[in-house]
Design a protein that fits this description.
This protein has 475 residues and is α/β, with parallel strands linked by helices. The radius of gyration is 21 Å and the shape is globular.
Amino acid sequence: MPNNREDLAFASIHELAPKIADGTISPVELTEIALDRIAQFNDVLNAFIDVWDEESLSAARRAEAEIADGRHRGPLHGIPIALKDLVDVAGKVTTGGSRVLKNNVATKNATIADRFNDAGAITIGKTHLVEFAFGPTGVNPHMGDVHNPWDLSRITGGSSSGSGSAVAAGLVYGAIGSDTGGSIRMPASLCGIAGIKPTYGRVPRTGVLDLSWSSDHVGPMTRRTADCAHVLNAIAGHDPLDNASANVPVPDFAADLDKGLDGIRVGVPEHYFFDPDIVDPEVLTAVNAAIQLLDRNGAETIPIPMPWVGDGRAINQAIVLPEAVAVHEKLLAEHADDYTPAVRSRIQAGLAIPAIDYIRAQRARQMFAEKMAHATSHVDVIATPSIPPRAPTIAECTPSPGQVIAEKGGDVPLFTSIADVTGQPSHSVLCGFDSGGMPIGLMITGKAFDEATVLRVGHAYEELAGWHSRRPSLA
């Protein structure tokens, strides 16, 4: 068990929770550690937009008193967490990472913010993001780029850039991300943490800024897969205020974590995800080694032909762009000059997509999802790289004046966006490092509403591989 402040900062929720419950570790101490690290490192990381020091400490003291009084609420009680600044908290500004919404004060909490409060978590502040969650690299010229704690010159991935950086750097124990084309799993991969995009509709989006109503997902980003399970337990479940919320039973996502890999069938796509013309060779090496480790420890790996799967990214774009225009129509009309030029151009590109093409894309999505379900019917999960490239630099991903697309970064969402088309649960877990010391992610994608199996495989892999024990050096 951790025995100093840095060890405590990098401890997992899974191991801290029982120690908080029995009084061995104090929520106040954990909150002080988080606030101290934010004060020490946020200037270089730019992971947080807003931090609530006094409110967090007051909440931590209340949590400590409740626990001492025998009113322990569960694994998140007394744990400092953060919200991506798309999530409303009453009385706080929700900027969406844009100066367009600099005065957008929320009047009530998002459903997931209330659920964190009910679980006793300490919401410590709001994390940075790509403007309006619309970009895969983490670059935000107007409000500042977020830096990767493994190498400050490199991207975190977007759009949940601040959440990825903050969790990886030990500033907070868990954070919320959103995922429309991969915005949980891309930063999870690039920052070397665990992040799951749940099944579409599993976690309610009430009080969360929209980008694409039919593709937006909300989910947890933590250092360990087990921690994702505990956070998902707190935030999942039907919300009648969200028309997209699924009214389905919610299991205990942590119940099967320790069952191992025996009997698990892992599909390995034969096409696209492992194409050496698309994927960096160091990424391929790390992911193939991870799959072999699963195979040697009880899982059965099964090749799956998917010659059509590369169509998923185009379907994702053909749906997201028109829906983003619909979301931003009024704001663009009134505040176009306040948008980052690249983000404004990306949203306005949706205006060039005819309505008939949007309808065709939705039909293609249905057929694509049916193909995916048929191809994977005989496996429990599929295993692939999370993203194709190694981490590029922030400079390489920053558009020059007049550019809409930067030199690099456009290939980051090629794989993650596919599960946003199908709505399946999809999880990124650290599976090694490249020759420059940057993290590489293994993506585990499962069947609809079977997050439990996805998390079981992710946890088993972490326990076998041990990559999570490494920490970025910020000294």
